[in-house]
Structure formats: C-alpha cells, structure tokens
Write a structure and sequence with these properties.
This protein has 450 residues and is an alpha+beta fold. The chain contains seven helices and 23 strands. It has helices at residues 2-10, 21-75, 83-106, 196-205, 207-210, 359-410, 414-449; strands at residues 108-109, 112-113, 121-124, 131-139, 147-155, 161-164, 175-181, 185-190, 212-217, 220-225, 233-240, 246-247, 257-259, 264-267, 270-271, 273-275, 278-282, 286-292, 298-307, 309-312, 322-325, 336-337, 341-342. The chain is elongated, with a radius of gyration of 38 Å.
Length: 450
C-alpha cells in the first residue's frame, strides 16, 4: 500500500534507483536525448530567423539593383536625353550603390554582421593567375582546422574557330556571307580581290553584334567566338559565291560551323560541372564555384582556413548534425567579377559610369550582380526550406517518440496503480477485521471459563 501511494502521489514508477535500476539508466539517457533534441529545435528556429533576416536584406539589395539597371538603360538613350539628365541618373545610381553598401554593413542579427563578409570563408594560397573568381558556399570542416582544395584541369574551355585558308578572294570571287555567333547574326558582302585583312576588319566591325572576331595567322583568316564554352559557336554561311571554311583545330575538315567546348576539371577528385571556364562542385563536404583563367591547364590548389556560419541542427555535436554555410559580402566592391568589373565601377569616377557612356558594360556588371544576389537568396531559401524546416519537423517527431518511450519506463500507470491501491486497501481492511476477530475469540473463551 505504501509503494502504491508513493507512485500515485509522485506520478513516477521509479522514485529511487532501487525501484528499477535498469529502467532508471535507460530513462535518464532518454531524458538527456529529449533535452538535446529540444535545444536542437530552438537552434534550428534561431537559424531560420538568421536566414530570414539576411534574405530580407538581400531582397532590398535586389530591388536597388533592378532600379540601377533601369537607370543604365535610360542613360543609354543618349539621343533623347540631355547631359544634365544623364548626370541626374548618375547621381541616383551613386545613391543606390551607397545604399547597397550601407545594407551590407548594417545588416546584423544579435550583433553579428551578416552581409559584410564576416560570415564568408577565409582562404590562403590562391593563385590569382590561375583563378580569377572564387565563391565558396559551404565547407564542412569536421575535426580539421583547414580544408585543402585541389583543382586539376585536364583541358581549358575553348571557343568555336573556323579558318579561311586562301590568301584572299580571287578577282572573280564576289561573295555574300552570313556570320552567326552567340550574340547574333550579320550579313557581309565582298567584291573580288578583297584581301583577308579587309575581311577581318569587316568582321571585327560587327563583332559586338555577332560575338565573332577575326584575326590573321600568317595569311590564314581565323574567325573565333569571343567567348569560350559549349554555348559559344561560329557559323559562316555563304549566301552567294564560294567561301570555303575549315575547322581551325583540324584544317583537313571542311565545316561551316564550329562549337566551343567546356573545361574538363576535377575538384578534390570529384568531376566538376563546367560551363565555359566556370567550374561548380556541390557536395555535402564542399560547395564551390570558381572561374579558371583562360587557357589554364594543370593543377592549382589553395586552402580554406576558416570562416562561415556554423549551425548546430542536431542533438549531438558531430559533423553529420552541423551545417557550415558561407555568406559573402554584398558591398558594391564585391558584386560583379574581376573580368567584367564590379558595381563600384558604375559610380561617378568609375570605369563604367553612365556619364562616361559605358552603359553596355555597366549593364553586364549589373546583370551579373543581380544573378549573384538571386543565387544567394535561392541558396539561403533552399537551406531554410530543405534543411532547417525539415530538420525541425523530424526533430519534433523524434522528441515525441523519445518522450513516449521515457514515459513508458518512468511514469506511473495510474489505472494499474489505482487497481493496486484498491486491492491493497481491501487486503488491509480484511486483515484488520480478521485480526480483530482473532483477538476477540480468546477473550470470549476466558469469560466462559470464568
């Protein structure tokens, strides 16, 4: 009766180690697991708040970039705008660029800067002659103090290239050719006896339209795509007359079209996805995007020595239950690429300001910056949706099951204990009644004898 009353009053089957030693051990382990899982849920929710703060700021940066691009398009209409109007647009661009840098410097969560490069990765040993741009999205350090990254390039990206091997057009060889490339198509006509140098000059005059440039290799006219990669191509089609072209890489093969090839490379032994000279690798241990220098082949390497934001998403402190995420700076001097230029270059005094008339290159920079911000937002959103939120849901299921298991071992079964209490009370009452009767019987016998 005493044991039953203690279990009912405390609500626990195990009130001391002697009640159930094995059950005590298991239940204490389950309690520790539940506590860790609850904290993991809190960690995940806080991580979600951090990501939401960063993404909200990036949304404002994206809106400002769209406005800047509109101003660049407006300033390109130089035939309809006065100089004062273009300078006014430039002032607005300067203000928007300053706002982007201000957002980068002031976006914080709990005092931790998020978009000024504070959460970007720290690298060492990068060869700037081999790599022109680098963006590391995620690195899992585990127990290592640094992560080496080895890039082995088997072949560099190439553009399409056709060759016209004749020294020039013959006297009777009047032609009209269609030149097509990644950017567009243009038609050119030449009279007989035109030299290859003149053909080269005409092709280069429209290279901004077609994306095809020409050069002379001795007396051979070489026509190449301005960009490299599988998206780039050169097409020469003779609309009238004869203009025979061959593959520049294989002069024995006649062809009217040649397509470029992407680089072939591996990163830390894994085959990288290549688009032109841009390599990407996305694995659990490493997510990185880098740009190779033109024509580079061979091996180059560097190390990631620290940085990133480490999120503890599981109930145990291990690599499998942690995610390290890098967030690069979105300041004006970091948006863009070394090849194209940076957003800071479109401000007053920059190489590609609206006042200088370099709106075409300014648009390229802004398109790249918009893509970079959109990619960052997509990556943060995917991490929040596919990693953090799903982690919270699975943790809550684990907490529910672990709590139920611990309760089965440790908590009192009230129905069973209530039945035990009633049984014990009846036994005590019956025992007391029997003892009372037993004590009365001898006294009755003594009275009869007296």
């Amino acid at each position: 009766l005493s044991d039953t009353l203690r279990r009912l009053s405390s609500g626990l089957q195990i009130n001391k180690a002697g009640d159930n030693p094995a059950g005590l051990i298991i239940s204490e382990m389950l309690r520790g697991q539940v506590g860790a899982l609850n904290q993991a849920v809190n960690n995940s929710e806080r991580a979600s708040n951090v990501l939401a703060t960063a993404e909200g700021a990036l949304n404002e940066v994206s809106a400002l970039l769209v406005d800047i691009r509109s101003l660049a398009v407006q300033a390109s209409n130089r035939g309809a705008l006065t100089g004062e109007e273009i300078r006014a647009a430039q002032l607005q661009v300067d203000s928007a660029v300053q706002s982007i840098t201000r957002i980068a410097n002031t976006t914080t969560f709990g005092g931790t800067p998020l978009l000024n490069g504070n959460l970007d990765y720290v690298t060492s040993g990068i060869s700037t002659t081999n790599l022109t741009d680098l963006n590391i999205a995620s690195v899992q350090f585990g127990t290592h103090s640094y992560i080496p990254i080895v890039i082995d390039v088997a072949s560099a990206a190439l553009g399409g290239a056709l060759a016209f091997t004749a020294a020039g057009l013959s006297a009777s060889q009047s032609i009209t050719i269609e030149i097509a490339g990644k950017d567009g198509v243009e038609t050119l006509s030449f009279i007989g006896s035109t030299a290859n140098s003149a053909i080269m000059f005409a092709i280069n005059t429209v290279s901004d339209v077609t994306g095809v440039s020409a050069s002379l290799s001795g007396t051979v006219l070489v026509m190449t795509s301005k960009e490299a990669g599988s998206d780039a191509f050169v097409s020469i089609n003779a609309l009238s007359g004869a203009f025979a072209t061959v593959l520049y890489s294989n002069p024995a093969t006649s062809s009217e079209r040649d397509t470029g090839t992407d680089a072939v490379a591996s990163i830390n032994g894994s085959l990288a996805v290549a688009k032109g000279n841009v390599l990407q690798l996305n694995t659990t241990a490493l997510s990185v995007e880098l740009t190779l220098a033109d024509t580079f082949t061979g091996t180059t390497q560097f190390a990631v020595t620290g940085g990133g934001a480490l999120f503890q998403l599981g109930g145990g402190v291990s690599t499998n239950e942690q995610v390290n995420l890098g967030i690069r700076s979105v300041a004006a001097g970091r948006l863009g690429t070394a090849e194209l230029g940076y957003l800071s270059d479109v401000t007053t005094g920059g190489r590609y300001s609206l006042i200088s008339g370099e709106t075409n290159q300014a648009l390229r920079i802004m398109d790249k910056a918009i893509l970079q911000i959109a990619t960052m937002r997509g990556r943060l959103g995917a991490f929040e949706l596919n990693t953090v939120q799903t982690n919270i849901h699975s943790l809550r299921v684990a907490i529910e099951n672990a709590t139920a298991a611990e309760s089965t071992i440790r908590d009192t079964d009230f129905a069973n204990e209530t039945a035990n209490l009633t049984r014990a009370q009846i036994l005590v009452s019956a025992g007391t009644s029997v003892l009372s009767t037993a004590n009365t019987t001898p006294q009755s016998v003594l009275k009869l004898l007296g």
